[in-house]
Amino acid sequence: MDRLRQLRAFVAVVEESGFAAAGRRLGVSPPTVTRLVSTLEDMLGVRLLERTTRHVHATDAGLRYLADVRRILGELEAADAAVAGVHGEPRGVLKVTAPVLFGQLHVVPGIVEFLTRYPETQVSALLLDRTVNLVEEGIDVGVRIGRLPDSSLRAQRVAEVRLVLCASPNYLRRHGTPTTPEHLREHTIIACPAAGTSNRWRFGHAAQARSVRVRPRLQVTSNAAALAAARRDFGITRALSYQVASSVKAGELTILMPEHEPRPHPVHLLHREGPHARTRVRYFLDMMATHLRSSPDLCRLGPS
Fold it and tell me: How far apart are CA 229 and CA 265, in angstroms?
């Protein structure tokens, strides 16, 4: 029993980034958490945590141990649930991360559906436009747009989004509609370098790939600002298809040259647990995958 308390204390300290927060989560005092983790380190003969006056984070050995501990605790939870006859009822806290706008439009509605269906669950959603380390930050499920680097995380591809050019109908009536990427040099360009849109825009893919250097008249720090300027008839911008879907439906923006678009960006659900993932993680993954695949604003996947 003490060993399980030690393991749970260790996981809580890493995920909460501190002993006091871990104590609140576990319902014990910070000195108790400190004692449990210290005893575990002494038994293993390995330092699992780096402690400073401001931060607590896992060492390299601690991160490796953390992955195994989470798997063990997940399997134990699944076994307890199965023998108790409540295998189909997820419960507990789930931590999820996603990009800000994608999260607001597509992930939060799925979270609300999950919470409504399973009243014994709670979700903490971290919506950030940066790559979140699921292991270091104690995240159960992440939504990632784009190609994935090799990692130990498990990935489930659920959708894809296009990188599109768009402008308002009024702008196109006044300035004409470009029909090739090279025609963009004759148009007013709105760019968002902070969102990964450089001044060299790539089109097509494989043998047909080519790039065109554009000269933006307006550069902004967010796609939302770039799209706002485009809706005000200022010029042509580039964004992900889900970001412009509502404006296209409303007739405020028109998508240009879809035949020259680069390969779509895949959307993955990432998680760090194995085939015996905790019940709440498995159920959330299944529900979110269904939710994203059914969205009309996300490209339908063909055979992969």
Answer: 24
Give the tens place of pLDDT for each residue, 120-174: 999 999 998 888 888 777 789 999 998 887 666 788 999 999 999 999 999 999 9
Q: Count of alpha carbons within 13 Å of 116, Cβ hemisphere only? A: 7
R_g over Cα of the chain: 24
Q: What is the pLDDT of residue 195?
A: 56
Angle at 37 between CA 33 and CA 38, to 5 degrees: 115
Separation of alpha carbons 63 and 298, rounded Å: 35
Domains and CATH numbers, the chain: 1-87 (1.10.10.10), 89-154+265-304 (3.40.190.10), 163-260 (3.40.190.10)
Task: Report the distance separating Cα 214 and Cα 184, nearest Å.
Answer: 7
Give the residue from 181, 151, 177, 175 showing the smallest Cα distance to 163. Answer: 181
